[in-house]
Amino acid sequence: MVSRVISLDTFDFVAFGGTGDLARRKLLPALYQRDRAGQIVGDTRIIATARAHMTSEAYRDLARTAIETHVKAGEREADTLDRFLARLEFVSVDVTGETGWDDLGLLLKPGAERVRAFYLATSPDLFGVISAKLGAHGLITPETRVVIEKPVGKSLASAKVVNDAVGQVFEEHQIYRIDHYLGKETVQNLMALRFGNALFEPIWNAAHIDHVQLTVAESIGVEGRGGYYDTAGALRDMVQNHMLQLLCLVAMEPPSSLDADAVRDEKLKILKSLKPINESNVGTLTVRGQYEAGASAQGPVPGYLEEIGAKQSANETFVALKAEIANWRWAGTPFYLRSGKRLAQRVSEIVVAFRPIPHSIFDGSAGPIQPNQLVIRLQPDEGVKLQIMIKDPGPGGMRLRAVPLDMSFAESFSGRNPDAYERLVMDVVRGNPTLFMRRDEVEAAWTWVDPILNAWASTNMLPRSYRAGTWGPSAGVALIERDGRTWHEDGI
Ligand code: BG6
Questions:
Q1: What is the pTM of this model?
Q2: Confidence at 45, pLDDT banded by 50, 70, 90
Q3: Measured from the CB, is residue 89 less than 6 Å from ligand 1?
């Protein structure tokens, strides 16, 4: 089946932080790809702002370089690129001061009835300030949306400050809190798998599922983002948002429709059902790690401290934890989460481990009967694998073997796999917030994460070191093995 492109009405897209890393690596390539696909039409304008002074011509050069760096050569046709670059304008705006706002207003004036999307690809401390200025300068129309990037706060209290500030100016339905994991094809596939098939839902509960594993492992280090990362750490950077969102999609009740609030209501119930982790159990339910020098596939790599140029840091670059959901569906089925930087491999996957069969009719010569496993691989090599037992073919008695029913997306579907930002940015323009986080979800996630952070601090639970290029500290393995289970390593 070929993908369908629904073109959008002409719109204006304004990126604050337009010269920054996110704009170059993600936004410009995503918008270019959507233009190339025919989704962006007419005289749709993309306006970049930053404090720097530069002409629109110079910005187009910056954008050309960004696209040449981040879009594959085979996907860059000269005429498409020229058409895209012609949409770009640059306005210098001092977001904390007064300069530039009128220029932006003048530029936006013709076409005031269009959808207008402000994308705040800036430091989170500026979300409130920029929103206030947009309001004060009369730039918010009924068709305006604002997109804010993570992190929304560093704690529940600071998240509320950000949400309050943005909420002073924008209605909740105009605020798009982006979590790019929700735009990944395989993450959306999780909903297709669960709710587009009759097969799984009846057994999608604690009676049939022994446990669930969520792994988001990265082989890269902090990549020049040490300033931010050292104040965040793996729990805030990956678990509070991406991983809890994945957990919600695995665990939530079937929503009545794909309507944004129907889905978000169900996710919220899961976040509110997570059993608290605090001083009394943080030592057994969580593990923190920090990498020291080691090796990646490309050769030797420095340790975290060296990478961020610090003598010491109590920040974690790895976290593993055991989460439990206190509701009827999931009581007794733990969710094990792990995420880290400089791990052995880049792999993100969800493993649903079913319970063993209740009774075996086979004798000992059949060999061990392994419980079924459903593995949803988010990246790389997106796909779904269901491990089942079959009879080993040929004579020799009834011998059983575990084999995967294996569906690789690359093999099954031709065409490119769009980046998450392509889908999400178009959803903003289209006005579909289903794959974005509502205020109460973000705050419920912090309500669960805050006590873990506090308990680490009050019990002085420091990260354990691990060699770069391994699977994290041995305590991360012990966390699950203590329960008689193991991290899934097939294909890793
Ligand atoms: C970001 C984190 O949200 O997600 C980064 O801030 C992390 O630290 C990145 O590297 C991972 O995203 P992806 O899409 O490469 O898995």
A1: 0.94
A2: very high
A3: no
- How many Cα atoms occupy the beta-carbon half-sphere of 333 within 13 Å? 23
Lowest mean pLDDT among 175-189, 245-259, 297-311, 413-427: 413-427
- The answer to whether 222 and 233 are in contact (CB under 8 A) is no
293 CA distance to ligand 1 middle (Å): 21
Q: Please report the atom of ligand 1 found closest to the CA of residue 346.
A: 16
The reply to whether ligand 1 has any atom less than 6 angstroms from the CB of 237 is yes
In angstroms, the CA 350 to CA 20 distance is: 32
Question: Once rounded to an integer, what is the mean pLDDT over residues 389-393?
Answer: 92
User: How far is 173 from 140, CA to CA, in rounded Å?
Assistant: 13
Domains (ranges, CATH) in the chain?
11-149 (3.40.50.720), 182-414+438-481 (3.30.360.10)
Q: How far, in Å, from the CA of 390 to the mean position of ligand 1?
A: 38
Pocket residue to mutate for ligand 1, from 180, 229, 316, most atoms within 8 A of Cβ: 180
Mean pLDDT estimate for the chain: 94
228 CA: nearest ligand 1 atom: 6
For ligand 1, say whether the CB of 218 is within 6 Å of any of its atoms: yes
What's the angle, vertex CA 216, arms to CA 210 and CA 219, rounded to 5? Answer: 140
SS3 51: coil
Q: 145 is written with which tokens?
A: 């949306």
180 is catalytic: no
- Whether 225 has a pLDDT exceeding 90, the answer reads no
Instruction: State the distance from the centre of ligand 1 to the C-alpha of 183, rounded, in angstroms.
Output: 13
Tell me the per-residue pLDDT of 450-459, one tens digit each, with 9 for 90 and over: 999 999 999 9
Query: 111-131 pLDDT, tens per residue?
Result: 889 999 999 999 989 999 999
Q: What's the confidence (pLDDT) of residue 489?
A: 84
Q: How many CB atoms lie within 10 A of CB 190?
A: 17
pLDDT band for position 492 (cuts 50, 70, 90): very low
Strands 286-292 and 464-467: parallel
Pocket residue to mutate for ligand 1, from 26, 150, 237, most atoms within 8 A of Cβ: 237
Which residues have C-beta within 8 Å of that of residue 65, sequence separation ≥ 6?
none
Please check whether residue 55 is in contact with residue 12, taking contact to mean a CB–CB distance below 8 angstroms: no
CA of 6 to the centre of ligand 1 (A): 28
Dihedral angle, C-alpha 186, 200, 191, 379, nearest 10 °? -10
